[in-house]
Design a protein that fits this description.
The structure is a homodimer. Chain A is mainly alpha-helical. Chain A has helices at about 1-5, 25-40, 50-60, 65-75, 75-90, 110-135, 135-155; strands at about 95, 105-110. The first copy, chain A, binds a DNA duplex (23 and 23 nucleotides) through helix 5.
Chain lengths: ~160, ~160
DNA sequence: TATTGTTATACTCTATAACTATA
DNA sequence: TATAGTTATAGAGTATAACAATA
């Protein structure tokens, strides 16, 4: 509930001011609203966006190293250390020593981690259906494609 | 340059993992990429997203109070105190005592603040043209409309 | 020398709660 | 009592740099 209280309380409902046409601001508001809605949906099971991203990425890439995970998540490796320790402490993932290279760890979800991810994925699916309802089913794919384009392409140059 | 260094260095280029289909994650990546591109464009003149939002909102609503500004920006009023002090120190805005109510301040841009906003708005326009190039001119309006819908509607229930 | 992960440190942004000065 | 703004405090998230262990 902590999560619910801290996010999405006050929002810029109609943040007029020449600003609504600006992509970055809109993206920020949209992201916050989307997360707040997701957190409301998942309730107690909620994981902050960062943790959820880690769980998803590890779930999709079992055995991934911390460095590779950091790159995939767009964060420095040093950022991951406490986050991974937290997820490990909660019993959601394991860090196994790698045979070939004793410097690195192979990250994997525990059964509890997989269960959590499954549960959250169900919520995410419902959440995505809300998106359809909100923007229309045809527009939805276009919007996601655009976001992907922005996320990937705009970083380049 | 500080700003440029701190943002948009490492990105999740192809953050596969069942996660790319998830709106929230995409929104986060898109926002960061968009801001990084904007910061790259504005260079020295860069203002962090929060400051920029304040400047835009005050520019559009001269005389707005801090509490009202906080609501418009979706942030608690206590958050604004240091941000406004900073903008005031930089000579970009003024906080004038209000005649009728001596508790509150009326926020206004200084000439320097207006100039800064104008300059940034020009960059923002160029930035928006990049968006057109990235997602196509027709899709652009649909995308912005969708984001507005998400930001506004999804917060509701 | 280079790489993996950790630690030390610092900075930004955010929130809540308690405070003041007004209303 | 209620509101506008400030201050004190705390927490999350992020980064850079230096480090130890290993390659």
């Amino acid at each position: 509930m902590d999560i619910l209280r801290s996010i999405g309380r006050k929002r810029a409902v109609s943040a007029s001011g020449g600003l609504e046409g600006q992509v970055g601001f809109l993206l920020r508001l949209a992201q916050e609203a989307s997360f707040a809605a997701f957190a409301r949906r998942t309730g107690e099971a909620a994981l902050r966006p960062g943790r959820y991203a880690i769980l998803s990425l590890v779930g999709a890439h079992p055995g991934i190293s911390q460095t590779a995970l950091g790159q995939a998540a767009g964060r420095d490796k040093s950022t991951l250390t406490p986050a991974l320790a937290d997820l490990e402490k909660r019993g959601l993932l394991r860090r196994d020593r790698v045979a070939g290279d004793r410097r690195s760890y192979a990250l994997r979800l525990t059964p509890a981690g997989r269960a959590m991810l499954t549960r959250l994925a169900a919520h995410a699916a419902a959440h995505d259906r809300d998106l359809d309802a909100l923007v229309g089913e045809e527009a939805r794919d276009a919007v996601l494609a655009a976001l992907r384009r922005i996320a990937g392409g705009w970083g380049e140059s």
